[in-house]
Every structure is written in structure tokens, then in C-alpha cells.
Amino acid sequence: MPLLVELVSPERVAYTGEAKMVICRTTTGDIAFLPGHVPFIGVLATHPVRVLLEDGGEQIIAVHQGFVEVSPPEDGTTRVTILSDVCELSETIEVARAQQAKSAAESALASDSEDVEAAAALRRANVRLSVANA
Amino acid sequence: MPGAQERVLRRRIASVQNTKKITRAMELIAATRVVKAQVRANEARPYSERITEVIQDLAAAGADADHPLLRPIEKVEKIGVLVLSGDRGLAGAYNTNVIRAAEQEIQDARSKGLDYSLVTVGRKAEGYFRFRNFDIDASFSGFTDRPTYEEAVAIAARVTDMFVNGGCDRIDLAYTRFVTLGTQEVVVRRFLPLESEETIASAGDAGATAGFEFEPSANAVLESLLPRYIESRIYAALLDAAASELANRQRAMKSATDNAQELIIKYTRKMNQVRQEAITTEIMEIISGAEALADDKSGPEDLLLDHLSADPFPNVLDRRTQHSNHETPRT
Description:
heterodimer, A: ATP Synthase, domain 1, five-stranded mixed β-barrel, 2 helices, elongated, B: Pyruvate Kinase, Chain: A, domain 1, 65% helix, ATP_synth_F1_esu_C (chain A), membrane (chain A), ATP synthesis (chain A), ATPsynth_dsu/esu_N (chain A)
């Protein structure tokens, strides 16, 4: 029985599909979900989420914070829902823009190492780039 | 001058025709955009449904509800009103209705001796309340017919701050709910604090028996989830309001187009009547002129040429006869 993966952003359902395994990083560490996982709710960190597909392929999604919920199994299917304000599939990421954001954030951090927003922006840009290059 | 009125009417018809073209175009634009707004509202639904589900699961799992956003109302001394209106007019009674509902809410609070804070969304509400010297704590505008999530986040941040730090004991939300294309209703709802008892009650036992695991902890998840929940509720309300605004505009523009068509018909009839009158008058003038002349003919006869003499050019005729008399012998 596969996992049913749903990636839901506030504006629309960004991705749905079946998968063998989902790997993501919560604020306390990495976690992988296999079919039949116990019900789970976790807070996600800014990090790529890896979805290992049925056919052996892999879909990587940049998730900038949010939540992951594993619902109690219904009819043997385990549903993994990722709720996130910003989530991007690797195909939709503009590498040039992410690079630009990265260098802007780096220069902001260079002048003020306490800048929380710039640090967050840098983290986001890094996640985007790693997803786009994967 | 009879032609003047006709010309005035003709000009008025032309101008109404132009107005009709404009309102017709606006109607069609609103019609296509209302469909898009509905699609957006539908696309946004899964997120708010899921987030509600997660909150219900958390509540069922016994997450501690001692969060500032969930604190129950003890004594209301100051209320916050968030009103969602449109940026532009020409949408029938859409703006007026929702603004009036919000104003009513504020007046009620005032009559009870309560203080109020007002947050407006849309230029129309801002203009209305500013003109009437209400205190506006914050206003957002420029996106009401196509709101994005970022705007919802900004509004949510302001409203949450008013509730947590700004001394508001209750926040009400006034907006126009989109029921169907034909029906929209203005609703005033309690927005904050969140109805925690209600969500817990509606959660049932499903979550409790499921035995959720939480990371880092149920409370931490709830804490980071509640702001998202507020954002998604504001976003849903914004989308609903946008769809209602467009539906109202479409309806208003449709009736404007119909009215313009009616006016055109009315003016055209009037114009034809005026023109016919002018023609009739002209004919009357000609006839009466001719008749006046005819009357003169049968009246004092000495004024007409053929009555002056039986033969108007007797000499000429005489000369011709003489002339012909001369020529006859030659031939």
C-alpha cells in the first residue's frame, strides 16, 4: 500500500501523488514516513522534502516551514499532508532569482550578522538552490 | 425651432449608448473574474480544511488550550472591528452594506460605553470611516478584487497584535459571504478569540483514539499552528469578499446596461415623436401657406394676373400674327 502525499499551500493544492516514502526535517530532526506510520503531527523546518515515488523516481520539494500530518490510515492508505505557506516543486524554482536572493542575503548578513530576516532569507535561498540542483 | 429638441435627444441617445457600452464591458469583465475568484476560493479550501483538522486532532489529543489567542472573553472593554470592503465602487450596494454593518457594530459598542479599534480593508471603507472621523488603526487596500496570501498574513499580523497587545478583548470580522452567484450576505462574526470549545467539541473522538505523535510537542505545534490558522481564515474571508464584490459588480453593471437600453428606447421614441411633430408642423405650414394663397385666389379677384386682363400679352400675340401674315405670301 503506497503513501498518499498531498502538498497543500494556502492558495492551492500544489502536489498530490503516491509515494513509497517521504523524508522531511522537523524542528527536532529528520524523519521518514513509510506506509502504516503512526498518526503524527510535526513542525517542519526550512528544508527540502524528499518524496520517493513508486516508480523509483524522486520528487524534491522546497518547503519553507509548515506542518506535516500523517493521518490515521483509512482503507489501508496512509495519508501524508504537508501544509506550508511557501512550497515549491523543483521544476518551478527560478535558479537565477534564488541565487540573487542568496547573494543579497549574504551581503546583508555581512554588514549585520544579527539580521534574523536575512538569515531566514539565506536559508530559504539555499534550500531552493539545493532543490533546483538535485 | 423644432429641430433643436430633436438634436438634443439625438445627442443624449449617443451618450447613453456610450455608457451602455462601458457598463456592458464592465459586466463581462466582472463575469469572467467572478468565476476566477470562485476557483481561487475553492483552491484555497483544502488548506483551511486541513489546518482545521490538525487543530481538531491537537485539541482531541489534549493540547493545552492556554494560548493568548484562545483566552476566553472575561470582560469586554474594547472591541476590534475588521471590515472587508472593496477598493472600487460601481458594485451596487456591496460596499455600502458591509460598511453599514461595521458602523452598526461600532455604534453598538459605543452606546455600551466600549472603546473600539478599527481596521479597514479596501479603499471604500477607509474613505467612509475617515470622512466620518472614526479612528482607523490600520488600513489595507489595493488588492480587494484579487487578494494574495501575503496580504492575509499582513492583516492577520496586525489583528493578532491588536488582540494580544492592543487591549482588544474581542475582534469582530465584517465581510460579505459568497453564497451563490445570486446571493451574497453581509455577516459580522466573532473572529478572535478563537472558539476553542467549539473546535474541541466538533473534533469528536477520532483524534483521541488515533493516538497522535507530536514533534516537538502538542503545545509547540499548536502554538505555531494558530497564527497560520488565523491567516488562512482571513485569507478565506478575503477571497469570499472578492468573489462577492465581483458578483455584485456584475449584477450592478447588468442592471445599468439594461437601464441604458431602456433609456435609449425611451429617448428614441421621444425623438421620433418630436421629429414627426416637426414634420407635421412643417407640412401644416406649407399647406396653410398654400391654402392662404388659394384663398386669396378665390377672394378679391383683381389681384391675380389673369384677372387683370383676359389676354396677358395681347400686343405680343398681335405682333406674331402680323408677322406670320407677312411671311405667308413668301412660301
